[in-house]
Structure formats: structure tokens, C-alpha cells
Write a structure and sequence with these properties.
Oligomer: single chain
Structural class: alpha/beta
Number of helices: 8
Number of domains: 1
Protein name: Chloramphenicol phosphotransferase CPT family protein
CATH topology: Rossmann fold
Strand content: 5-15%
Shape: globular
InterPro entries: CPT (IPR012853), P-loop_NTPase (IPR027417)
Organism: Streptomyces cinereospinus
Length: 189
């Protein structure tokens, strides 16, 4: 039996899928898990919100609870990667502080930032079909989500299906040029 001290140290890779609600991030993540040769953990932000108890949150405390949930999510992803685990995270950078927090926590050379785009009409159609999101949520997120403007790789789920997006990301992972989008964002360029 191998002892924990025998496990070689390494940092895990974070494949950071950023896009609005209903843009297809979770579907791409599922395809990536099937496609990639190494073990990866899919850590969606929605799963962290779903872990919260159903105890009522007073309206004046909701923003604080949500903020803490996002902060905890970022730290959980950072911890998994620091322990050497590869992670596919799907996130909505709909508030500027979320990107700043991730830039401070994640090792920039170990992050592949993926822009997941989708036309507004298609986002609205998907929201109606899902029925589990407030109408107009994606439209409200659209302007801020991609405001930072820098990605390592991008895909449009209005044009490509999740499997094609995953293949595009997988092909990028084999090359991973530097500097990464996270390195450029952290440097302020």
C-alpha cells in the first residue's frame, strides 16, 4: 500500500468555463470528462448553491450568503488544484469581484480560461425550456460575463455542440501556450 508521503507533489490544471447561465457550460464539462485522458473533477458553481440547506434566508442577508457561497466555491476549486487534482469548473463571472478573487487564488499558469458564448435568442430559448432559471437571467449576465475580454480558447454553443466544444478545448490543452489568459489578466494586460 502506498503511503501519502509517497504521492508526488504537483499542481492540478483548472479548465475554467465562463459563460452566462444556460450557455452550455455543464454540457461541455460532461463531454470534457469523457474526452480527457487524465482524471478531472467537474465542480460546477450550481452544485455549491445546491448544497446549502433550505432554511429561509432573510432578504437583507441574501447577498451576503450568496457572496460567501461564491467565495467558498473559489477556495474549494483552488484547494483541489493545489492538492494536484485537475478540475473543470463552470462559472458565471457576472460580477467583477469574482474574477479578481479567482485571479488572487488560482495559480495563473495552471488555468485555461474558456469563453463559452451563445447568442441571446438561443439563451432565452434555453431558459424557457429549462424552466428553472428566472426569465432574463442570461440577458442580465451577458454584458459583464465576458467584459474582461481575454480567453485562452473560446467556443460558441449556438454554432458548436458540446462535444465539438470539448474537442476544441481538448486540442488546446495539448499545446497550452504561455502566457495564459490568467497570467495576462493578473499582469493587467
Amino acid at each position: 500500500m502506498r503511503h501519502l508521503t509517497d504521492v508526488p507533489a504537483r499542481r492540478g490544471l483548472i479548465v475554467f468555463l465562463n459563460g452566462t447561465s444556460s450557455s452550455g457550460k455543464s454540457s461541455i464539462a460532461a463531454e470534457l470528462l469523457r474526452l480527457l485522458d487524465e482524471p478531472y473533477f467537474h465542480m460546477p458553481a450550481d452544485a455549491f448553491h445546491a448544497m446549502r440547506s433550505h432554511a429561509p434566508v432573510p432578504p437583507d442577508e441574501l447577498d451576503t450568503v450568496l457572496h460567501r457561497t461564491w467565495q467558498g466555491y473559489h477556495r474549494a476549486v483552488a484547494g483541489m488544484a493545489a492538492a494536484g487534482n485537475n478540475v473543470v469548473m463552470d462559472h458565471v463571472l457576472s460580477a467583477e469581484w469574482r474574477l479578481r478573487d479567482c485571479l488572487a487564488l488560482f495559480e495563473p499558469r495552471d488555468v485555461v480560461l474558456v469563453g463559452v458564448h451563445c447568442p441571446l435568442a438561443e439563451l432565452e430559448r434555453r431558459e424557457r425550456e429549462r424552466g428553472d432559471r428566472p426569465p432574463g437571467l442570461a440577458a442580465r449576465q451577458l454584458r459583464q460575463v465576458h467584459a474582461h475580454g481575454v480567453y485562452d480558447v473560446e467556443c460558441d454553443t449556438g454554432v458548436l455542440d458540446p462535444a465539438a466544444c470539448a474537442r476544441r478545448i481538448g486540442a488546446f490543452l495539448s499545446a497550452r501556450p504561455a502566457p495564459t489568459a490568467f497570467q495576462r489578466l493578473r499582469a493587467g494586460t
